[in-house]
Amino acid sequence: MEKKKGRVTLPSENNFLAETKELLERWGADAIRDSDGTKLDEAVKDLDAKIYTTYFVARNHNDFIEEHMEEVQQLYLMSQFNTATSTELTIDFMKGYFTEQITPDYRHDPKVWWEVIDRTAATVVDSQSWEIDQNKHTLTIKAAEPFHEYTVSFLVYKIWDPTQMYNHITNNWGDSVPHDIPFDVRQPHSNKYMADTLRAFCENNPKTDVVRFTTFFYHFTLVFNDLAKEKFVDWFGYGASVSPAAFQAFEAEKGYRLRPEDIVDQGYYNTAFRVPTKAYLDYVDFISRFVAKEAKKLVDIVHEYGKEAMMFLGDNWIGTEPYGKYFQEIGLDAVVGSVGGGATLRMIADIPHVKYTEGRFLPYFFPDTFYEGNDPTIEAIENWTTARRALMRNPVDRIGYGGYLSLAYKFPKFVDYIEQVTDEFRTIYDVVKGSKPYTGLKVAVLNAWGKLRSWQTHMVAHALPYKQIYSYLGTLEILSGAAVEVVFISFEDVINEGVPTDVDVIINAGDAETAFSGGEHWKNPALVAAIRQFVYQGGGFVGVGEPTAYQHQGRYFQLADVLGVDKERGFALSTDKYYTQVVDHHFITADVADPNQLDFGESMHNIYALDEKTEILQYANGEIHLSAHPYGQGRGVYLAGIPYSAENTRLFMRALYYAANKEAAFMTWQSSNIHIEVHAYPEKGVYALVNNTNTIQPATIYDGQQKEQQVTLEPNEIRWKTI
Amino acid sequence: MEKKKGRVTLPSENNFLAETKELLERWGADAIRDSDGTKLDEAVKDLDAKIYTTYFVARNHNDFIEEHMEEVQQLYLMSQFNTATSTELTIDFMKGYFTEQITPDYRHDPKVWWEVIDRTAATVVDSQSWEIDQNKHTLTIKAAEPFHEYTVSFLVYKIWDPTQMYNHITNNWGDSVPHDIPFDVRQPHSNKYMADTLRAFCENNPKTDVVRFTTFFYHFTLVFNDLAKEKFVDWFGYGASVSPAAFQAFEAEKGYRLRPEDIVDQGYYNTAFRVPTKAYLDYVDFISRFVAKEAKKLVDIVHEYGKEAMMFLGDNWIGTEPYGKYFQEIGLDAVVGSVGGGATLRMIADIPHVKYTEGRFLPYFFPDTFYEGNDPTIEAIENWTTARRALMRNPVDRIGYGGYLSLAYKFPKFVDYIEQVTDEFRTIYDVVKGSKPYTGLKVAVLNAWGKLRSWQTHMVAHALPYKQIYSYLGTLEILSGAAVEVVFISFEDVINEGVPTDVDVIINAGDAETAFSGGEHWKNPALVAAIRQFVYQGGGFVGVGEPTAYQHQGRYFQLADVLGVDKERGFALSTDKYYTQVVDHHFITADVADPNQLDFGESMHNIYALDEKTEILQYANGEIHLSAHPYGQGRGVYLAGIPYSAENTRLFMRALYYAANKEAAFMTWQSSNIHIEVHAYPEKGVYALVNNTNTIQPATIYDGQQKEQQVTLEPNEIRWKTI
Question: Which among A19, A148, B291, B563 is least surrounded, fewest beta carbons within 10 Å?
């Protein structure tokens, strides 16, 4: 059988021609890219492969921006909290910030653009009552209230691009490399410059087939502290998109004026965990529209030169919002992003309105992994098998790697493994792409962000772990590779359009009062009534952690009636709690040997059953962690947390099927072994058995008619069979 | 040395004269009481001892109340939540209630006195929109909103006294004993009857020296379910004090009308964990004033007959509020209450405005403890040593026991032990009473209830354990026997009068948004500013659990600046948390071998340090459970929870001394061994070493000049020494 080729991107570098050709052949690659810190020589560019060239729109041109420092990108920052101990308070508002990264903007009148807030009284201090010392970078309040806390929200110029800063500091580039100063394409000179420069680039790089924008205009919020370490990071943050010009344009467009506090948000800076305010949503909309309009200009130039435009999902991606309503207008050919697992793969693969998507797999070919004595294959297997589940549902169109190819080349076992991976990818792709896989259920993930942040919930910095998120991220990771159709809906969607009629189960997962749980939204009668009706008529509702939580009218979980459980916060202690008996056998825990060994991650305290109809599936330490409850023709299911694992994948899938009242369908295209997943493609007449582990796994497989067969799969094997 | 006598009360019963005399002698008792279910015969009453006779004011007279059923006591109850699935909804509002205990009040117009609430929309349904079927006990809403939840707040008559009901059901009294129907002394016939009946009682019981009121008018809220089991219990609940007459009198007195919802409170019924509303505080004030006025009439009658009036702290005690402003007016001679440990002992002993207090110790002489093969001494030792710590600080004036003396008599070892206890009590009393013990600190427990609920925080039903309270109750139990002066202050106190100048440390302990933590009170600038000033000038602030918690202006803990820690709720995840390093040595943990073995009870998740000044004393699972923080001249200390134990007593005491900046004084009248406590009485020139364990304990003792001496104490020993 002839070796398949294509759909793979290779990083390369100078003076590595022969090996590049060899790997191009072995991995079947059809594209070559440069990386941060590597350049391609002409001989490599002449190989039979598309050439990707990384392109920075809004930085890497200090010669230009140094002539137009009034066009440097800006941020709204909040000072530390400062306590007045008398009636005069001087605030060192720059305290804790990194002066190489930011500098206060005194160009725009602070009396107009800054805000001093009494955080104790929650009032804005009259701008007549404070003065700034521009030499000392201090602000003095003349008539402070003793023992009130004050903060200053102030505008700064961002004089160092955060990604370059990170690389610069991490790699000790010292004085040899200048600090990239980012410029704001909303400003006239910058706007013209970005177009002219791109045009010149296209002229001067005829061998570049794909301009890989890294990325467009505004970096996600990334601020360093006075020790040159990360102080604040929000992969979704719009902090670096602000400016007086932007605020003025916003006012013209939306009809009202923003305050600094709309961005500063009490120091939380509208992290995605905050229930977004109308002003912030308007601002996201406003910036997204602007970014789409300006990015389209660049894409048009690229197309003019017969090249393709690819966007990197990260860095200066703010405002692109690939799931937003303006993304299509940009006209991009492709999006590429880093794959941390199944959920991040789907975040890339599901992006609409592009010709193709590409996933950059791990590990990077960097010395932190590729060093003597270490086996980079281990991380590669882990990354591949985790992401493969998601490829089986909706594949990216290409895969690729990054870093120093010369490093990887020193690890023959790794090179062999990637050869196998690339072949496997192409085989998967040829079956799965464009073929609707069998799905047993359609689920809707419900939160304050909805579709706009598809596959992007509970994320702080891209794919970085946090104690507070893994118990919820499990839901997405499980769903990314499961035989379910997944949509993301917002509270607004439900209120305006009702629950989509083809949805089987709604999932609401998160800590109380976060955007993912929903906070005050749950006070809205239209929302809760719509969901109650949906479940009552036969739908399913699965809550994780503190679903629907908002203290109101005798309930903490506003859909406690649906879930059959609520959280004891002290107010209901006087009411006797009699329902603590765990049911003997249940569909949801049918594969669980000992429910007390289940892993609920951070779990949740003080959950109790509302009535005798609540089916308690796990009860420990005087509280429920897993339960189900009938509600009309439908059902609610509660889970205290669901970190990603094979065991929890099975548990969660059973919970979804049970909530949907579709237990009978569960054993369709299913496996008795939780480590083997079955994906069927009826249109293609094939199905695949996938071993997610490094060990041999036997299983009973159930086909589309639930007929059994016995199989034994090799470690990590994917076995294709005809239906 | 002659055996001391007195200060002890014995239960007795019929046909037990000789043994009663023997125990009277051996235990040095000088009073004899009857109990529920026991009566004293004349011979016993003639012994050389005061005779206590239990007296019920508002029940036990069905012959009277059956003629005046319109004067039966009432309750406001809330139905279950009921979901409308169409535009008509019929609610079985009595569902889940015990029809032998309550019956709906149709005598007062439900359209006036009841309330139907749309809990989804948080609106009251117009009384024109619903109708009642008095035969079926149902209420029908004609124009319901589909998938909204509705509740009915309805008035009932309480046709069975809860305490008698409990005893009746528990002991299977069946048809032989009628159900006591409680009557409301606010009503004219009942009011006259209670006085006449007491007068007759006094006439007919010349040998009664002490009328033991059990108790006055209104029982704490205790409602049973349709299975005749406890449904709702609140030892502080005013639920059973309501009536249309009371509401009308309230309106006349306070100038505004209460709603049923002011009592029903979303179904939480104003449990003490709810931050009390102004209306509820007004209502407590209103009922307390009435109870004091009416109780005084009874006490006056008792005094007229030359007898003493003693009140039982429990049962129908609602409105007496021993720490409230009307209690003194009642003119009681004594209060007696059940002792569960140190905190409950102090709750009795600290009551002002009575001649004496009495603690009823455990175990009761009941068959559940006094059965063959069991050693009741074990419980007695546990109860005595736990409460003894508190006696050393402020003793009750008398101790006593309850139940069947004949049962106890069968356990000679128990009789011997109580002989020893009674002797020990009299010795303690003679030294401690009226002599101010050495105290190293003055602490103020700060919550929404303040002095009114001294020693009564975090309590649901008297001394019953709950998962949600023990981590906080530890603070009171520790303080009850510690060398500190304890006051209870409310947020109102701080706002109106500031922090008392002689207070060293403020303690705020509780779950977020409970009355004990404070909830919305923490939004009040006057409150937080006053406490900041207090700490800044050198005071201490100790927070336990979720102190000062209320999400507001960028903080969850409103005094995060003082405590140096806050709780991560997801909103600040984007901010890097660098402060995780545990300090090597610290005053607070000086006696702790391994901080990771500390017991924080239910503990608290996601606590993080605000800045580098936070001294982290224990850090596990990515979160802080114990820390300290400087603030001006003062300090804040944070604890995730502090269940009562010897280890935690030491830890908490060190935390208090550290917060107060008085570490140097800690080793004054102190012991090296955490199981031995030292109590000094400088006015009397003596001090006591108390072994709180059942085992021999060696220790180094530090006297008033911190001079050392070595001692070894016998199990449970109390050793007196001269200064």
Answer: A19
Residue B419's CB: how many other CB atoms inside 10 A? 16
Distance CA B488, CA A691 (A): 64
Contact A147 B533 (CB under 8 A): yes
CB within 8 Å: B554 and A233? no
Indicate the angle between helix axes A342-349 and A470-480, nearest 10 degrees.
Answer: 60
pLDDT tier, B589 (very low <50, low <70, confident <90, very high otherwise): very high
Is-contact B674 B652, C-beta < 8 A? no
Query: What is the biggest distance separating any 2 CA atoms in chain A, rounded to whole angstroms?
Result: 84
Mean pLDDT for chain B overall: 96
> Is the distance from CB of A455 to CB of A480 less than 8 angstroms?
yes
Q: How far, CA to CA in Å, does A431 sit from each of A688, A718, A720, B32?
A: 10, 13, 10, 92
The confidence score (pLDDT) of residue A14 equals: 87
* Residue B541 region by backbone torsions, left for phi larger than 0, else alpha for psi between -120 and 50, else beta: beta
CATH class of A60-190+224-297: mainly beta
Contact A569, A606 (CB under 8 A): yes
DSSP per-residue string spanning B417-450:
HHHHHHHHHHHHHHHHTT-PPP-SEEEEEEESSG
Which of B288, B169, B154, B297 has the alpha carbon at shortest distance from B228?
A: B169
Count other C-beta atoms under 10 Å from residue A229's C-beta: 11
Model pLDDT, residue B3: 75
Q: What residues of chain B lie within 8 A of the CB of A512, using their CB? A: 569
Domain ranges of chain A: 60-190+224-297, 441-665, 670-722
For B665, other C-beta atoms within 10 Å of its C-beta total 14
Distance CA A262, CA A287 (A): 14
Spatial distance between the Cα atoms of A407 and B560, rounded to a whole number of angstroms: 49
Average pLDDT over residues A426-448: 96
CATH topology agreement for domains B60-190+224-297 and B670-722:
yes
Task: Give CA–CA dist A151/A164, Å, rounded.
Answer: 30
| Per-residue pLDDT tens over the stretch B40-64 | 888 889 999 999 999 999 999 999 9
A525-551, pLDDT tens digit by residue? 999 999 999 999 999 999 999 999 999
d(CA B273, CA A570) in angstroms, rounded, equals 6
Interface touch B234/A512, C-beta < 8 Å: no
Integer angstrom CA distances of residue A291 from A200, A256, A276, B635: 21, 20, 20, 50
Q: Which residue in A81, A226, A571 has the most chain B C-beta atoms within 10 A of its own C-beta, making it the best mutation to test that interface?
A: A571
CA distance A344 to A362: 12
Give the model's pLDDT for residue B616. 98
- Indicate the class that CATH gives domain B670-722: mainly beta
Q: Tokens 């990071």, residue? A: A233
Reported as a pLDDT band with limits 50, 70 and 90, residue A146 is very high
Which of B529, B569, B573 is closest, CB to CB, to A466? B573
CATH class of B441-665: alpha beta
What is the mean predicted confidence (pLDDT) over A38-59?
90
The active-site residue, picked from A105, A315, A350, A511, is A315
Question: Which residue reads 């580039």 in tokens?
Answer: A173
Residues on chain A touching B461 (C-beta within 8 angstroms)? 574
Q: Nearest chain A Cα to B85, which residue? A: A533
User: Taking a C-beta distance cutoff of 8 angstroms, is the pair A703, A669 a contact?
Assistant: yes
Cβ burial B610-626 (10 Å sphere, 16+ → b, else e): beeebbbbbbeebbbbb
Write down the ipTM of this complex.
0.96
What confidence score (pLDDT) does residue A36 get? 67
Strands A308-312 and A540-545: unpaired
Is the model's pTM score more than 0.80?
yes
Contacting residues for A713 by C-beta, under 8 A, at least 6 apart = A676, A689, A691, A696, A697, A698, A699, A719
Q: Looking at residue B1, what is its pLDDT?
A: 56
